[in-house]
Amino acid sequence: GAVVSQHPSWVICKSGTSVKIECRSLDFQATTMFWYRQFPKQSLMLMATSNEGSKATYEQGVEKDKFLINHASLTLSTLTVTSAHPEDSSFYICSGLAGAETQYFGPGTRLLVL
Amino acid sequence: AQTVTQSQPEMSVQEAETVTLSCTYDTSESDYYLFWYKQPPSRQMILVIRQEAYKQQNATENRFSVNFQKAAKSFSLKISDSQLGDAAMYFCAYRSSNTGNQFYFGTGTSLTVIP
User: Fold this and answer.
1) Which residues are registered as beta bridge partners of A98?
2) Which of B45, B47, B101 shows the shortest C-beta gap to A97?
């Protein structure tokens, strides 16, 4: 299957700082990428859908000014958590849509805000 | 919005035996895709199997197969000859082929494989 990388895999930051997470499709072009948040033992919660070259579409309840998403190329999307707080601590997963059908997921990023 | 239901929060199976995970969904559409994803302890989501709704034949990938019942809106996953490495969280997912790219995920089934 197609490969998606995510960097960093683990990040610890102080409250009030910003954190950027990169998501790359390594062997395919992803016109659409998704960002999810996952709490322990729960399903994936879609945060936003990003299409290359256009603004991301955020799900209800997700603050677009706090979770900045940029999809500048067909292989790279970034999620920036601005002014992070402890309640933003979570597992963040990105995925790329390969072709018209299937999502392939990155390995996830564990964010801990102290 | 479409809903995907996985009614079994936890399942267990003896190694080498067969287990079936159930999934039902609600949609008014006729054209869509269904997926099973596996999330092991590493938390990397892995595609297990995919089914196109227009195909009557059930998808199969080695030890993994599905029982797709379109009229009943049911999409169960059968794992044959279960292995220790099959232990994971399994998520069923739905995606419309017409209305946008969003995937809808079930709440997951945690599968334990007993040696």
Assistant:
1) A102
2) B101
